[in-house]
Design goal:
Blueprint: H1 3-7, E1 16-17, E2 20-21, E3 23-24, H2 35-48, H3 58-77, E4 85-88, H4 91-106, E5 112-115, H5 125-134, E6 137-140, H6 151-157, E7 162-168, H7 180-189, E8 193-197, H8 209-212, E9 216-220, E10 231-235, H9 237-241, E11 253-256, E12 261-263, H10 277-293, H11 295-315, E13 319-321, E14 332-337, H12 342-350, E15 354-355, E16 357-359, H13 364-370, E17 375-379, H14 386-407
Parallel strand pairs: 3-15, 5-6, 5-7, 7-8, 8-9
Antiparallel strand pairs: 1-2, 4-10, 9-10, 11-12, 13-14, 14-17, 16-17
Helix pairs in contact: 2-10, 3-10, 4-5, 11-14
The structure holds pyridoxal-5'-phosphate.
Length: 408
């Protein structure tokens, strides 16, 4: 993998910000888009645009083919079958759909959902709310010292009443990687299913839902070099087949009378209304692009950069780095400059051309546990290189010195 050559495939990264080389290290928030994805979306609109699954003319058939080809590409990325991929607006919608449909059917008094205090709000609130409505219990796994969810901690809270274990594969704050394969086995032994929030893993590492035993997997197009407003929910075929739709309307029906309706098979019964066809085409192109670059290579490359950044940040006196002490297994590095609000850090880093995320990262319960109202987060991806690490470290050093001087 050649990150310099790769970088040139992303038009936005050729830009310079504040007179500086653009150091974009906020890919956990959203990724930049390569030319092949931009071209695929444009080509769809210029050559094939029509509504899907309805028209009987050639143009409409091509649009439907593009949309279904994209489903197959996305399925291939996670080693699923195309019929096991529901297109959604993103991870948030995927998890809501899952909680409302599967959770709505499986949960009730005497049952429980097991999750962790480290979840993104998108994987907490849907389960919290459906559990409240259905009279089910929401149980939390105890995190270890490093903020990690371990299989042992999951086994300690799962019991015969557990219907769903819902966990992130990679934490968007700590960058920790959860052993979802071992946890799937624990969930299945208890008769529960494992739902994985893959927002921070699918774009960054090889993913095989069959091998890992994952029952549901949610992910977003925009975090994997694809467009915004598109994502996917993978569901094991037998499970999707037993689930009721959540959105009712056009596209998803077989037959409708004034008082009743029958619905298409999965995944189409979950895709009521005109879908984001161009978004799906872009997500399909992104899935192909990532596989061509190689997910193992991407993972190796970005973890190398994240480890170099974490080591460098730890060497700057007055900087606190969160997450694993030892080797990092993801591209996420969260930190604070002591005595400086993370928003001020991010604004100051911007003056050096460095884009990082700052805030609570949609993980308020975890932030309370860390004892930090907010943190700054650098997250690396395939288009970053050693120069990005150098630029980040120099900017953090300069920012720290600036605030020391201002504080006098
Ligand atoms: C771990 C995790 N889960 C869920 C989400 C929500 O993703 P989206 O906003 O694309 O729905 C994010 C986004 O930052 C995330 O990092």
């Amino acid at each position: 993998m050649n990150p310099v050559a790769l970088r040139s495939e992303f038009p936005l990264l050729r830009r310079y910000e504040n007179g500086k080389r653009l150091c974009y290290v906020d890919s956990a928030a959203t990724s930049q888009k390569p030319q092949v994805v931009l071209d695929a979306v444009r080509r769809y609109y210029v050559e094939d645009n029509a509504n899907v699954h309805r028209g009987v003319y050639d143009l409409a058939a091509r649009a439907t083919q593009d949309y279904e080809d994209a489903r197959a590409e996305v399925a291939g990325l996670v080693h699923a079958e195309p019929e096991e991929i529901v297109f959604t607006r993103g991870t948030t919608e995927s998890l809501n759909l899952l909680a409302l449909s599967y959770g709505g059917q499986a949960l009730g008094p005497g049952t429980n959902v097991v999750t962790s205090p480290a979840e993104h709000h998108s994987n907490l609130l849907p389960w919290q709310q459906v559990a409240l409505r259905r009279g089910a219990e929401l149980r939390f796994v105890e995190l270890d010292e490093a903020g990690q969810v371990t299989p042992d901690a999951v086994a300690a809270v799962v019991d015969g009443g557990t219907r769903v274990v819902a966990l992130a594969h990679v934490s968007n704050v700590m960058g920790t990687v959860t052993d979802v394969g071992a946890i799937a086995a624990i969930a299945h032994r208890a008769g529960a299913i494992l739902a994985v929030d893959g927002a921070q893993s699918v774009p960054h590492m090889p993913m095989d839902v069959r091998q890992l035993g994952i029952d549901f997997l949610a992910f977003s197009g925009h975090k994997m070099c694809g467009p915004t407003g598109i994502g996917a929910l993978y569901g094991r075929r037998e499970l999707l087949a037993g689930m009721s739709p959540v959105y009712y309307g056009g596209e998803m029906i077989e037959e409708v009378t004034l008082t009743s309706a029958t619905f298409k098979e999965a995944p189409w019964r979950f895709e009521g209304g005109t879908p984001n066809i161009a978004g799906a085409v872009g997500m399909g192109a992104a899935a192909r692009f990532l596989q061509e670059v190689g997910l193992s290579e991407i993972h190796r490359h970005e973890t190398e950069l994240a480890n170099a950044a974490a080591d460098g940040l730890r060497r700057i006196e007055g900087v606190t780095v969160y997450g694993p002490e030892g080797h990092r297994e993801s591209g996420v590095v969260t930190f604070n400059i002591d005595g400086v609000h993370a928003h001020d850090v991010a604004t100051a880093l911007d003056q050096h051309g460095v884009c990082v995320r700052a805030g609570h990262h949609c993980c308020q319960p975890l932030m309370r546990r860390l004892g930090a109202a907010s943190t700054a987060r650098a997250s690396f991806y395939l288009y970053n290189d050693a120069e990005d690490v150098r630029q980040l470290l120099a900017a953090v050093q300069a920012t720290k010195e600036f605030f020391r001087r201002v504080a006098g």
